[in-house]
Amino acid sequence: MQLLSVMPSCKSRTYSLPTKGNVKEGGQNPVVEKRKQEMKFMKSLAPTLLAAIVALSPIFNPPVSLGQTTDVHRGATLFGRACIGCHYAGGNIIQPGATLFLKDLQRNGIDTEEEIYRVTYYGKGRMPGFGENCTPRGQCTFGQRLQEEEIKLLAEFVKSQADQGWPNIESFGD
């Protein structure tokens, strides 16, 4: 069935509507043929789309909990208050070989949260200890001491930052 366009700019064009009698020479309806091509294309995309959905699914990549986010924020705040003066961006302005980057932590045998906690609590070398019961007094900070829970948060924060190569932490500050 042939239709004449009623639009002024398309007067000279005619369009065919698919009907029973509108069949190509090969015996296939053009609409059916186009549908088959579309289905074939969609089937070729299915594995890729499924892989993307699985990879982005919260089941396989659980979101960070509010508690973890709060701990990171508290760790960053403590770091900014007690450590950043000497360890800006994970470096060390006093002793360049004792940075908080993973390579230096490993070389110095301080690459676990427990070791980072111990050094932060009692101090080591030129670094003062910040623990409430830090001894000897000469190795400890003359400034404000930190509670055990605060030092634990600091150790977790420093370890996670070291594992990530010390990305920009300015967004965590108060």
From TrEMBL:
Keywords assigned by UniProt, alphabetized: Electron transport, Heme, Iron, Metal-binding, Thylakoid, Transport
GO MF assignments: electron transfer activity; heme binding; iron ion binding
Domain Cytochrome c: 70-162
Top-level taxon: Eukaryota
Function in brief: Functions as an electron carrier between membrane-bound cytochrome b6-f and photosystem I in oxygenic photosynthesis.
UniProt similarity note: Belongs to the cytochrome c family. PetJ subfamily.
Protein's recorded name: Cytochrome c-553
